[in-house]
Write a structure and sequence with these properties.
Elements: H1 8-11, E1 21-24, H2 36-43, E2 48-51, H3 63-67, E3 71-76, H4 83-90, E4 95-98, H5 101-113, E5 117-120, E6 134-137, E7 140-146, E8 150-161, E9 166-167, H6 176-181, E10 183-194, E11 213-216
Parallel strand pairs: 1-2, 1-8, 2-3, 3-4, 8-10, 10-11
Antiparallel strand pairs: 5-7, 6-7, 8-9
């Protein structure tokens, strides 16, 4: 099966439709599928449910889909500093399903593993647990959370081979590997495509069985959302 496509637009061809759900990798701006998101915007597809840790930052990442009003609902864990997100949510234009970050990660992992539900202590006794079953195990209450799956997962990886085996680099190995397993179709943009058989099997983070399409990234800006520095110490 040929998995390598010539461009981000070609890699998304015939996959997008109104009302679909999309998982988008990334933690802050690290590991964002920088090349695929603009193509989703250009397609004009609308009423999207986006599953992602966050919604990007001003002018970058998933912010682009918010700005074009293509997103109907976000399932996220960190949205605190995105002013566009805030304004759309407070005006009622955007639905939000807020998750504790570990719960979001586990819901995605469960979706990829075929586990429909699991129990966690996180959120018990808070608004997070409202409307959800709560059961007692060994004298402690746990809230039931359900899996997350999507019509499409868009992933950013460091390297791939022709079979779709993936390696991630440092912080970009965040939500991306789990999301790659939880989409009906998984499209991956990578910085480098290597010859099949080049990877040490022990160094593969995501097996190619989970990957449907691969494309070389056309955007690799790797922006820093918040840059914090300290004055350089003067040598004595």
């Amino acid at each position: 099966m040929q998995k390598i496509f010539d461009s981000p637009a070609a890699a998304l061809d015939e996959l997008l439709f109104d009302g679909m759900s999309i998982m988008s990798g990334g933690f802050g701006l690290s590991g964002n599928p920088e090349s695929l998101i603009p193509e989703i915007r250009a397609s004009g597809v609308k009423d999207l449910t986006i599953i992602s840790n966050n919604a990007g930052a001003d002018g970058f990442g998933l912010w682009m889909l918010l700005e074009s009003r293509q997103v109907k609902k976000m399932i996220s864990s960190y949205v605190g500093e995105n002013k566009l997100f805030e304004s759309q949510y407070l005006s009622g234009d955007l639905e939000l399903e807020l998750n504790p970050q570990g719960t979001l990660a586990e819901r995605i992992r469960a979706g990829g593993a075929g586990i429909p539900a699991f129990y966690t202590k996180t959120g018990v006794g808070t608004v997070v647990a409202e409307g959800k079953p709560v059961e007692t195990f060994e004298g402690e209450e746990y809230v039931r959370e359900t899996w997350l799956r999507a019509d499409l997962s868009i992933i950013k990886a460091w390297r791939a081979d022709a079979a779709g085996n993936l390696m991630f680099r440092k912080t970009a190995r965040n939500f991306n590997p789990n999301m790659a397993t939880a989409g009906k179709v998984t499209v991956v943009e990578v910085e480098e495509i290597v010859a099949e058989g080049s990877f040490d099997p022990d160094c593969i983070h995501t097996p190619g069985i989970y990957v449907d399409r691969i494309v070389l990234s056309t955007i690799n800006e790797k922006r820093i959302e918040k840059l914090t520095t300290r004055p350089k110490e003067i040598a004595a």
